[in-house]
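Um, can you check?
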Amino acid sequence: MSSSDIFIGETIGTAVLILLGGGVCAAVTLKASKARNAGWLAIAFGWGFAVMTAVYISAPLSGAHLNPAVTLALAIKDGGWDNVPIYWAGQLLGAMIGATLVWVAYYGQFQAHLTDKEIVGEPAAKAVEATEKGAGPVLGIFSTGPEVRNVVQNLATEIIGTVVLILAILTQGLNDKGNGLGTLGALITAFVVVSIGLSLGGPTGYAINPTRDLGPRIVHALLPLPNKGGSDWSYAWIPVVGPLIGGAVAAGLYNVAFA
């Protein structure tokens, strides 16, 4: 794979991942959306299918890492570090593009939601509580956040979830020569993501992917959304550092137990 193929593949694939994953969060959250209040099951399966779609699209070009933790784990496993910055750059750019496309697709719903006094005004206790914590009323569409703020627990949750994801990827036997996921692994990985969401997503919203959280959080900070509130930068390091630690731990476990 050439450097340009890697960058283009990761940019397109991660953009699709965030478009569909962030899209289901928007669909469930925003006022005037037909899927509003569809619940956690819809979000978990929506993210799983987003992973599957993005992998199928990007695998021929880049191997479909779509996640810096995956790229790091494969580099540790195989010893190939040359293309890591290219993968990470494409992933971050793609995540920002995908988040922007969610805003475009749901533009009217964002406007209706963020100008509704019952949602952003003083009577809306949840919105007030979220703002006090540094999170705006729609930040959850873009990025993750904890239900209980405990640095050790939140970090541990992200590490554990990412270890499960990376071990599931590495043990598929489809990542030889550092090529990442094969298309046959897309469906398996999609259901692993659904499982993690259902079982481990409750505490933090299961980022398990640094750019999945960081890229959209940057977009949230930049977009001209009315009454959007803060982007919760005090928490933002946890869904970046936690998955990277989880990826490294998973690669180490793989090399010890499976290699």
